UniProtKB/TrEMBL annotation:
GO terms for molecular function: structural molecule activity. This is Flagellar hook-associated protein 3. It comes from Paenibacillus faecis. One of its GO terms (biological process) is bacterial-type flagellum-dependent cell motility. It comes from the Bacteria. GO terms for cellular component: bacterial-type flagellum hook. It is found in: Bacterial flagellum. Residues 212-294 form the Flagellin C-terminal domain. It holds the Pfam family Flagellin_C.
Length: 295
């Protein structure tokens, strides 16, 4: 086949265009850090990248849930510590009041403090996290207790869950009746109310009976406290697992979509060298004319 000067020029321009296109792609990859800028660059790789991005976004949501659950339970752990301190103080005061040498006025002074402790327990029962009540089941927008009627008020029995994986959800909330006792029974609020009444009326039998009821309330509180600790451990384990899964997903995504910067720089430098060589060769070819052949 006869190769004409025009064919040489066309081929030269085609080669230069291909090299420039390849260099532009390399420059874009280095600028963005991504191998794939559009699906046509790597249809199969694009499919993997989308799957990894979806998995990472979902795992980030699960990680946020796990962290939120941990924070809620840490708040509840602190609240139950406060409730335990209230009961310890109530027990100490009750033991003092049970002393036969105490006069009515002294027991009434203790009664005043017991009433304050009961109000503090109601405040604990109405505690919130980010504006949501912690001890009223799924009715997180309603306070479970009032100062006057806490002894006879029911809390919502529902539980609030957080998803930490596609198939795992962990309960976060504990209803007030589990922690403080059911309405209509000797729940902690009724125990403190009855104790205050016994102290005000110098009812020594009622004062002595309150000790056992306070201990029962403390035992019930301890059971809930242990449950909170177990759930905190569960959320911590899930946080660690999700974080490990994210590391693996990011590595797999990077293998598909991220640019190996050192290799990309070397490749771009090689293309620049090829471009310079092509331009140099093309300049010599395109300078050749009929006069050059007649010399």
């Amino acid at each position: 086949m006869r190769v004409t000067g025009m064919m040489q020029n066309i081929q030269l321009l085609k080669n230069l265009r291909n090299i420039n296109t390849s260099m532009t792609t390399g420059q874009q990859q280095l600028a963005t850090g991504q191998k794939i800028s559009k699906p046509s660059d790597d249809p199969i790789g694009t499919g993997y990248q989308m799957r990894y991005d979806t998995d990472l976004a979902r795992s980030e949501e699960f990680l946020t849930n796990a962290k939120t659950g941990s924070e809620i339970l840490k708040t509840m752990d602190s609240l139950l510590q406060q409730a335990s301190d209230v009961l310890k103080r109530a027990r100490t005061l009750t033991m003092q009041a049970a002393n036969g040498t105490y006069a009515l006025e002294q027991r009434q002074t203790i009664a005043a403090e017991i009433k304050q402790l009961k109000e503090q327990m109601v405040t604990i029962g109405n505690s919130t996290y980010n504006g949501r009540y912690l001890f009223n089941g799924q009715k997180t927008d309603q306070a479970p207790y009032t100062a006057a009627g806490a002894a006879g008020e029911n809390t919502d029995p529902g539980l609030f869950y957080l998803n930490v994986s596609p198939s795992v959800k962990v309960p976060v909330s504990i209803t007030g009746e589990v922690v403080f006792g059911a309405a209509g029974t000797d729940n902690v609020f009724k125990v403190l109310d009855d104790l205050a009444t016994a102290l005000d009326t110098d009812n020594r039998t009622g004062i002595s009976a309150a000790l056992e009821k306070i201990d029962a309330s403390a035992d019930r509180l301890s059971v809930s406290w242990a449950e909170i600790g177990a759930r905190m451990n569960r959320f911590e384990l899930m946080e660690n697992r999700i974080s490990d899964d994210q590391v693996s997903l990011k590595e797999q995504r990077a293998h598909v979509a991220d640019v190996d910067v050192p290799t990309a720089i070397i490749d771009l430098k090689s293309k620049e060298t090829v471009l310079q060589a092509a331009l140099s060769t093309g300049a010599r070819i395109m300078q050749t004319s009929l006069v050059d052949f007649l010399r």
